[in-house]
Every structure is written in C-alpha cells, then in structure tokens.
C-alpha cells in the first residue's frame, strides 16, 4: 500500500490557482493591520502618557509595519501569488493614508 505524496509542481499549481480566491482576504487582513498600526502610532491605542511612551509606541508600530509589509511581499512573491501581492501592498499602503485624510477632514 503506497501513499502518493503531492509533488512540488502540483502544490505550486494549487497555490497559484488559490491566488484569485485568497487575494481579497489578504487585502482585508492587510487593511486591518495597517489601520490598527496607524492607530497605535498616533496614540489612539495604548493611550501613551509621556513623550517616551509615545515614541516607543511609534517605534513598535513602525517595526511591526515594516515586518508585515516585507514579510508579505516576500511570501507572496515567492509563492507567485500576484493578486495577493498587489492586494497586500495596496491595502497596507492606502489604508493608513485614507485614515489620515479622514482624520484631517474631521478636524
């Protein structure tokens, strides 16, 4: 009795076919992460009391943002998931921009 293991080519094809259905979820997750990290950086989340706490929160948010951005780019590029890559980049870069514009319009 032998169990056939999927070859690397079959797995690669399956991942590439999943790109279309996965891309909206990737974009939604990246938009959520980008928005939360922006709110952390501007002090809405965590409520920093001192300037040192505010600077630490901004540094933490920036490090997480950079790791999430580069990690997603590398992962989706290596897997060949072009739609997910573009959705990740667009959502992660445009969501904080949209929040800043909305906050400025409300002020």
Tell me about this structure:
The structure is a single chain. The protein is 82% helix and 0% strand. By secondary structure, it is an all-alpha fold. Helix 1 packs antiparallel against helix 2. It is elongated, with a radius of gyration of 18 Å. The model has no long low-confidence stretch (mean pLDDT 89).
Any chance you could write out the topology, listing elements then pairs?
Elements: H1 8-41, H2 51-79, H3 82-106
Task: Give a quick set of tags describing it.
107 residues, elongated, mainly alpha
The overall pLDDT, averaged over residues, is 89
As a whole number of angstroms, the C-alpha radius of gyration is 18 Å
* Percent strand: under 5%
Shape: elongated
Q: With helices defined by DSSP (H or I, 4 residues minimum), what is the helix count?
A: 3
Oligomer: single chain
Main sheet summary: none
Number of E-type strands: 0
